[in-house]
Amino acid sequence: MPINDLSALLRRLLQEKGEKPWLEFKHNNGDPDLIAKTICACANAAMLADKDRAYLVWGIEDSTLSKVGTTVRLEKLTKGGEALENWLCRIIEPRLMMEFHDFIDSDGKPHALISIEPTYDRPVKYAGNAYIRVGQHVKPLSGFPDHERALWLATGRHKFEDAISTTHQTDEEILEKLDISAYYQLTGNEQPKKQSEILRRFSQLGYLRDDMEGGYDITNLGALLFSRDLTIFPSVAGKSVRVIKYTAKDKRKSEEETEGKRGYAVGFRGMLKFIMDRLPKHEIYKDGVRRTVSKYSEIAIREIIANALIHQDFAVSGAGPVVEIYEDRIEVTNPGNSLIEVDRIIDERRSRNQKFASAMREMGICEERGGGIDKAIIEIEEMNLPAPEFHTSSDAMRVIIFGPKQFSELSKADRVWSCFCHCVVRWIRHDYMSNTSLRQRFLLEDEQYQAVSSVISDARKAKRIIPADNDQGKRNARYVPYWVR
User: Fold this and answer.
1) Omega within 30 of 0 (cis) for the link into 94
2) Using CA atoms, how far apart are residues 452 and 437, in angstroms rounded to an integer?
3) Domain count, the chain
4) Cα separation, 330 vs 324, whole angstroms
5) Is 312 a domain residue?
6) 106: how many CB neighbours lie within 10 A of its CB?
7) Angle, to 10 degrees, between the axis of helix 264-276 and the axis of helix 354-362?
8) Are 153 and 166 in a shared domain?
9) Domain shared by 209 and 137, yes or no
10) Which long-range contacts (CB under 8 A, 24 or more apart) does 428-432 make?
11) Are residues 258 and 398 in the same domain?
């Protein structure tokens, strides 16, 4: 994150009213070894404090915070004949993003500053040793096991959502690039009249960060959710949702292809309507009134698409979620493999992007924690549609939502999979699957008892379901998913 205004940054750092573990003030000490140790200590402290940057500043008297100037010139410092900047970049592990500045402040006095961005990879070391700041002192990290343990935990805490998408934005630029009012509309909260209160709230939520120079940085999370145009944010430009409509059951000919540019929270409802408008419909009579309704469950599609957005792997570059509409099905694909085995995807919970998921839930865009797939499956069963399929690979997850099919049109594998999914749905409702419940699931009459018995037999042979009671007879038999015991 390049520094745009060194004088503004210095004023902001002096507002800290003293040194911090991630902030060191110096007068004239330019010893390279001490600088290297201090960089490591401040970088590690910044990780513990969840700060984007750590700073070493020369020309400040640390006891009074007076701007006294300095004789240190970073561009002239060397170690063993090697320029200080090159030596530090080579000797410190892992490699850090650092900026070195010599500048004259507004008071006419010379200052120097090093800005350090932690890697969040592992603790930072100099000459094989990690350091930490305790009070105003630089100490070996090995002497503070609690700090070391916390630091290793912090290395896994920094996520894609927290990273900065665009730096040094003014209030006006933020309002131009982000649809901030959408947050208040979606949450039902009253929008403050003061712009400063809105920006403060967005900072608290992790959508913005104080850039220490009188402006704000927009995080990836803020851009993903509220961007008016994702393409202006390089780090998330490739994460927009593509919707493709084909004319038949394969990809040979597409009828329409659209790429959404708005942030996920801002554009989700419009995108869902766009998709539903392109799905086949039929007429039904309800309460004596003829109505045109979709052949697909809108709730199921909403939850599955929201699930794809939330659980995508943002580290997979050049790939975003894709919704493909075919003549007989919809396929929703997101980058990143599934964190859960396919057989447990209905009942287990695990989130890849927790902050993003939490924000989407707060704004009512998706179901409660991890319950979206459950709700989608239940809605699909209520409409007696074929069970959706889940296909995972090393770099993608694909969910296939099928249009209406008669029992006779289902293959043996389709029937067994639908039987298994139905059994799981019954189980999460604290109930059992039976021949009767499965007949109702397939919209079959009582006299088709034997056809359903064959499906149950095939599902047992495939080891998808097991008897709820090993001693039960065939009459009124009940079943549970195979993983129950």
Assistant:
1) yes
2) 10
3) 4
4) 6
5) yes
6) 11
7) 70
8) no
9) no
10) 428/346, 428/347, 428/374, 432/468, 432/478, 432/479, 432/480
11) yes
User: Residue 369 to residues 157, 341, 352, 359, 360: CA-CA distances in angstroms?
Assistant: 19, 18, 12, 11, 10
Taking only the tens place, the pLDDT of each residue in 10-65 is 999 999 988 999 999 999 999 999 999 999 999 999 988 888 889 999 999 988 99
pLDDT in tens, 290-328: 778 889 999 999 999 999 998 888 877 668 899 999 999
Domain enclosing residue 454, as ranges: 407-484
Domain check: are 299 and 430 in the same one?
A: no
Classify the C-alpha dihedral 463-446-424-420 as positive or negative: positive
Integer Cα distance of 387 and 356 in angstroms = 28
Q: What is the dihedral of CA 267, 272, 274, 280, to 10 degrees?
A: 170
The model's pLDDT over 206-238, given as tens digits with 9 standing for 90+, comes to: 999 988 888 899 999 999 999 999 999 888 888
Residue with tokens 């750590």: 54
Q: How far apart are CA 3 and CA 165, in angstroms?
A: 15
**Rounded Cα–Cα distance for residues 164 and 215 (Å):** 13
What is the CATH classification number for the domain harbouring 428? 1.10.10
DSSP 262: S
Residue 1 lies in a domain: no
Cα angle value 138/209/38 (rounded, 5°): 15
The bridge status of strand 242-246 relative to strand 322-325 is parallel
Residue 285 shares a structural domain with residue 389: yes
Q: What is the DSSP letter of 409?
A: G
| Tokens 């069970």, residue located | 387
Q: What is the number of alpha carbons within 13 Å of residue 353 lying toward its C-beta?
A: 25
* Residue among 227, 207, 205 at smallest CA distance from 217: 207
What are 442-450's contacts with CB under 8 Å, separation 24+?
442/384, 442/407, 442/415, 442/418, 443/384, 443/407, 444/407
Among candidate residues 339, 344, 369, 345, the one with its CA nearest the CA of residue 357: 369
Among the candidates 181, 208, 235, a domain finishes at 235
Q: Quote the tokens at residue 200.
A: 């403060």
Please state the pTM of the whole predicted model: 0.75
Buried b (16+ CB within 10 A) or exposed e, 108-127: eeebbbbbbbbbbeebbbbe
Specify if 146 maps to a domain. Answer: yes
Q: 177 and 99 in one domain?
A: no
Do 255 and 398 belong together in one domain?
A: yes
